[in-house]
Design brief:
Strand content: 15-25%
Oligomer: single chain
Number of domains: 3
CATH class of the largest domain: Alpha Beta
CATH superfamily of the largest domain: Thiamin diphosphate (ThDP)-binding fold, Pyr/PP domains
CATH topology of the largest domain: Rossmann fold
Largest sheet: 6 strands, parallel
Distance between the termini: 66 Å
Structural class: alpha/beta
Length: 565
């Protein structure tokens, strides 16, 4: 029996196990929307902006481990997805972005709401398609999902002209997908594993840099086993947080621009560095030329393009983190590095003030992040926006499991927090989801409060309200002689905004109110917005200035900080 292209699209989504689509309708996708009521297995969530729909699909994918999906119409609807697509590409998130386009006869003729979204997205997707025949739809969706979820995951985009939705064809789902030249799961080279094991066994001061790839490949148990067998301390990139519990004896937190003092100096003094599923990027490693040039680099990554891209790699290991670690664990010797760990522990104790919670009377973001973590325990999902609060959350929340932290790493997208939290809550309806956002980034996507209300999503939103674009202000203070330009930001009364949307909102001004506020939010069955009136000009420490090396990490002045963590 022949069915419409629109029905083929929805049948394809069901075959792929996609149960939720974050979308916004428009002219050319109306034939698809017309068929949604006949496919109740696919839940459509009406967002208030297409970019937010893309971020929600991203948050859904990270929290669930499944393929996220966003849908938009042609022209401005499609171009509004671009930031979300680029965000998913930078962070290797498996997402499917579907757009409609003008009818085939109008393509290339500057029709109403036409945009060459295939051309626009080509540099920021793993792959994309313009489907010109209804008969090709089913296989295209199968292949797109295969590409998005295998190898190094990423976003795939499918553009469909309006009349392809209305054409008829048989629904023929492929039994398997095979793409010539695409090898998403390369065989682990055991000779390379043996060479890497010899380097690791000979090390006196080794460290592990665990990144997002550990989480993407579900290799957190293998990471723990590898670290425990070798006795090697684990440092995390921002997106690698949660790959090993923060309270594990071998966990030494985040390195990088706002990483811990001991992590940055350990990376600078190690003799062997084992990168696992990380891009070796500048945010984590600082100035490449001076990133520990004498260390031997072992790098596990599924993307061969990452080997040697920024840092010379003596022992590249191609493959996903799980498969390579499973091969590497029996190849390495049981070991301990007592003196090296003692050196790191002593440095952590000596420099504890560099990541302390401020002792003054004012309300600090550091305290709020630590309290959200302590009050909620290990099961809470933390989604952040981008800025100072993002770094403080990374420093002060005790992440214990993969994707307990969902944040925009590579692209650093302001406005990501609220919609991504919405997607995470859809994916994990039985878990507490807290969005930690700034007053600047939240105003970029706060319209999604309406979506949370409509969909009964009990997201708890903690606004760190300091009246500034905080990270930009910090840079202007430290590197531009306090020349504050376009960095103070006004905002509406967030509590009244919450009330206008019909959700619970309240304000916190005193540090003694924080724990009770968090508990009050948790006890409320629906979404909650808390306006935390925090210190206006606090800075994130430690800090590696842009263009500096990790060994040049700058600490907070002791006089401003309480020696506690």
């Amino acid at each position: 029996m022949q069915i419409s292209g629109a029905d083929i699209v929805l049948e394809s989504l069901k075959k792929l196990g996609i149960d939720t689509v974050f979308g916004y309708p428009g002219g050319v996708v109306l034939p698809l929307y017309d068929r949604f009521p006949f496919h109740p297995e696919v839940r459509h969530i009406l967002v208030r902006h297409e970019q937010a729909g893309g971020h929600a699909a991203d948050g859904y994918a990270r929290a669930s481990g499944k393929l996220g999906c966003a849908l938009a119409t042609s022209g401005p609807g499609a171009t509004n997805l671009v930031t979300a697509i680029a965000n998913a590409q930078m962070d290797s998130v498996p997402t499917l972005f579907i757009t409609g386009n003008v009818a085939r006869s109008l393509l290339g003729r500057d029709g109403f709401q036409e945009a060459d979204i295939t051309g626009i997205t080509t540099p920021i997707v793993k792959h994309n398609y313009l489907v010109m025949r209804v008969e090709d739809l089913a296989y295209t969706f199968a292949e797109a999902a295969f590409i998005a979820t295998t190898g190094r995951p990423g976003p795939v985009h499918i553009d469909i002209p309006k009349d392809v939705f209305t054409d008829l064809a048989e629904f023929e789902w492929p039994e398997e997908v095979s793409i010539r030249g695409y090898q998403p799961s390369p065989r682990v080279d055991m000779t390379a594993v043996a060479d890497a094991a010899a380097i690791i066994d000979a090390a006196d001061k080794p460290i592990i840099l665990a990144g997002h790839g550990v989480i993407l490949s579900r290799a957190h148990e293998e990471l723990k086993a590898f670290a425990e067998k070798t006795g090697i301390p684990v440092l995390n990139t921002l997106l690698g947080l949660g790959s090993i519990p923060r309270d594990h004896a071998l966990s030494y937190g985040m390195l990088g621009m706002h990483g811990s003092y001991e992590a940055n100096h350990a990376a600078s003094n190690a003799d062997v560095i084992i990168g696992i599923g990380n891009r070796m990027d500048d945010r984590a490693l600082g100035r490449f030329a001076d990133f520990n040039p004498t260390a031997k680099i072992v790098h596990i990554d599924i993307d061969a393009a990452e080997h040697g891209k920024n840092i010379n790699t003596i022992a590249p290991l191609l493959g996903d983190a799980k498969s390579v670690l499973q091969a590497l664990i029996p190849a390495v010797a049981q070991n301990t590095h007592t003196e090296w760990l003692r050196w790191m522990d002593d440095m952590r104790a000596e420099h504890a003030h560099s990541m302390a919670i401020p002792s003054g009377p004012g309300l600090s973001v550091q305290q709020i992040c630590a309290s959200i973590s302590e009050v909620n325990g290990d099961e809470v999902i933390i989604v952040t926006d981008v800025g100072q609060h993002q770094m403080w959350a990374a420093q002060h929340v005790k992440f214990s499991f993969p994707y307990q932290l969902i944040t925009s790493g590579g692209l650093g997208t302001m406005g990501f927090g609220a919609p991504a939290a919405m997607g995470a809550q859809v994916a994990c309806p039985d878990k507490a989801v807290w969005a930690i956002v700034g007053d600047g980034g939240f105003q970029m996507t706060m319209q999604e409060l309406a979506t949370m209300v409509d969909e009964h999503l009990p997201v708890k939103i903690a606004i760190m309200n300091n009246g500034y674009l905080g990270m930009v202000r910090q840079w202007q203070e430290l590197f531009y002689k306090d020349n504050y330009v376009s960095v103070q930001i006004s905002q509406p009364d967030f509590v009244k905004i919450a009330e206008a949307y019909g959700i619970l909102g309240f304000r916190v001004t005193d540090k003694d109110q924080v724990d009770d506020a968090i508990r009050r939010a948790n006890e409320h069955p629906g979404p909650v917005l808390i306006d935390f009136q925090v210190e206006a000009e606090d800075n994130v420490w430690p800090m590696v200035p842009a263009g500096a090396s990790l060994s040049e990490t700058v600490e907070a002045p002791r006089t401003q900080q309480e020696v506690s963590r």
